Each structure stands twice: as C-alpha cells, then as structure tokens.
Amino acid sequence: MLKLIAPYKPILAIPGTRALFVVAFLARLPLTAKSMALTLHVVLDQHGGYAAAGVAGMVMTAGMGVGAPLLGRMVDRRGLKPVLVLTGASETAYWVTAPFLPYPALLATTFVLGGLLGVPVFSVIRQAVAARVPEAMRRQAFALDSMIVELVFMVGPALAIAAITSMGSARVTLAVIGVLTVGAVVTLWLLNPPIGHRSGTAGPDAAPPRKLPVSTWLRPSFVLVLATGAAANLVLSGTDISITALLRQQDAVKWAGVCIFAWCLLSLVGGFWHGSTARPWRLPVLMLLLGAGTVPVGFIGHFGWWWLALALLPAGFMCAPTLASTAEAVAAAVPASARGQAMGLQGSAMTLGGAIGAPLAGTVVDASSPPWAFATTGTIGVLSAAAMLAYLRFAAARESAPVGAGHGSGPEVVVGPEGASGAVLEPAASC
Known about the structure:
431 residues, mainly alpha, Growth Hormone, Chain: A, 2 domains, 2 strands, 74% helix
C-alpha cells in the first residue's frame, strides 16, 4: 500500500494541490446529482413519464455538450473569474426557478441555464491540474483526479436518490443542489486555481504565450483522443444500464448496488495502479482492455449476480486509468493558451459518449437481451482502440519515410512509448 501511495506524495507536496483536490471533490458533488434530481423531479413532482424525464436529461446533456468548449474558450480569453460569475449566476437562476416551471419552460431553461451556461467544474479542475502540476507528474495527478471523480459518482447520485425518495419530492433537493452549486462557485473563486499559462511555475509578470490557431493543435491524433474518451464514456454508461437490465431479468435488482460498488472499487484500485506504476499502459491499450473486458460481462453474469460482480472486475480495473490517460493526452496535446477550449472539447466528447451509450444499450436490451448490450458497447470500445492503434502505426510509418515523402507540418500528440499516455512527440518519434 505504501508503494502505491508514494508516487502521489510529491504531487500533494506542491503548494495548493491539496486544496485543489479537496475542492475537486466538493465542487463536483452537486453536478453529479443534477441529472438524477431532474429526472425524479419530472416523474414525482410533475407527474410525467420516464420518457419525458429522459428528454429533460437529454436536453441538459446537449446543453452541456455545446457549452463546454465555448466556456473553455472564454476561460482561455478572459480568465476563470468572469466565467464563474456568468455560469454561477445562470445556474443559481436555474435551480431557483426549476421547481416551479411547467414542463416546456423547464426544457428551455434546462438547455440554456442548466446546460449551456452550467458551471464547467470538470473542465476547470482538469485545467487547474494541468497548470499546477509539472508535466512529469501529470500522469499521477490525473490518476488521482480520476479516482476523485469515481468517488464523487459513487456518492452524489446516491445521496440525491436517498433524499428524494425519503421526502417523496425533488423540490427540496433541487434547492440544495442550487445552494451547493453556489458554494462550489464561491470556493473556486476564492481558490482561484492557475489556469492555462497562469501556472504555478510561471512568474507573476510572465507574459501569456502567443495564441496559436486551432489548426496547429486540432490534428487527427487529437480527434482520436477525443473519440477514445467518448468511446470510454459510452462503454461506462452502457454498462451501467446493462447491469440494471440484466439483474432485473434475474429478479435480483436489489444486488445492483453490490455489483456497481465492486465495479467502482476496482476502478479506484486501477487508478492507484496507473499513477504508481513505472510502466503504465498506453491509452489505446487501456481502451482496448476496457472494451474487451466489457464484451463477455453479460454472458458470464447471466449465471447470477455474483458472477456479474466478478465479471465486472477486469473492466472496472481499466476505467479510471483510461479516463486519466485521456485527460493527460488532451493536456499534452495543446498549448497552454488553448487548454480551456481543448478541455471543453474533451468534456463535450465525454458527454456525447455518455448520451449515446445509455440509450444504445437500452435499445439492444429491448431488441435482444442484456448480455448483447454489454457486448455491443464493449465492441465499440475495442473498435475505437483499434482505430487509434492503426493511426499510430500509419503515422509512425509516414514519419519514418524519407524527407519529402509526405511529412506532417509539425509535431502531433500521440500515445507515446513506454506508456507516455499523452505526449507531444516530434515528427521523427515512433509510437
């Protein structure tokens, strides 16, 4: 255990990082409960169906997906505090008014105030981690952050469900989420973490780096990193739905919490391993193992809930490392002056993957059976990893060709050798 913790000690010794990770946990809690609280508000308070609740959740997801890169670009240009003022005021207005709005008005305000102008806590924290921590220690830092995200998603939705079901209404919970969101904004404002070029290693009078055109960093390899992040979240959201569907088929839904807990626990263990090992696996390898580990889960879990819990362990081990490696690759792919927009694009890609994974798995369950839902989403993960591996081989062959045979115009971010999951390599470097 001491060997696993040791690599994280230098990160926590950096001034400001302990406070940053504490805020990373607390500020994310209300965000993880938003979708669940909105769903139950539509069902319990507005007496709508689950289809109407699903539309509301989809609208919020769409708003967040559109808003993330726009807010990230605003952070790059204006700094963090103006974005916190704008989004904090918007979300406060949303949570104050949402309990009293009719359904059509709720959808409109959910898209604009709750989604498009929602507080970009996830991307801001990732930006702050990239700016605060030296590049040599970012793998450990993002692994620690991914474990915090895992804990938040284990706690936030569960607290929201417990509060709403105990009161029989979601209105109080919506108000509490609003208060907690304001608290998160105030905390981030007071912490004022370094963002982009305003890193802790830069002097107070350091000039901001020259802003580069998007075309200099929005390269095919970067798009593949985003696609891999989307595929990872697709697999995870699809697995979540498939677990419930399979256990419901076995009349064992009461054991869903045990299975999901085992899945999340192994993700935490995997995150510790990813940050502590001297030879971490590359991003496409992690994605390949996550997808391949998900494919047989339903067929094994068909024999009982305990088999399902065991079958989830290998894929669970890959969850946090894959997400951490994706964030590290995005941070390394772009100049500091464009990190906000890049992290926003990553957030949009993850949101898109999650928005596709759950309904895709549900459709497969309805058309066939839960085991094939696991297999379908896992196969998409495998194909995403295969696409990245194929591109890396193609890029390596192209860059090793003689001069004049079609070199690229500059370095691209690729998944580097020896597990350097996000590194900007010169054209001559191989993968």
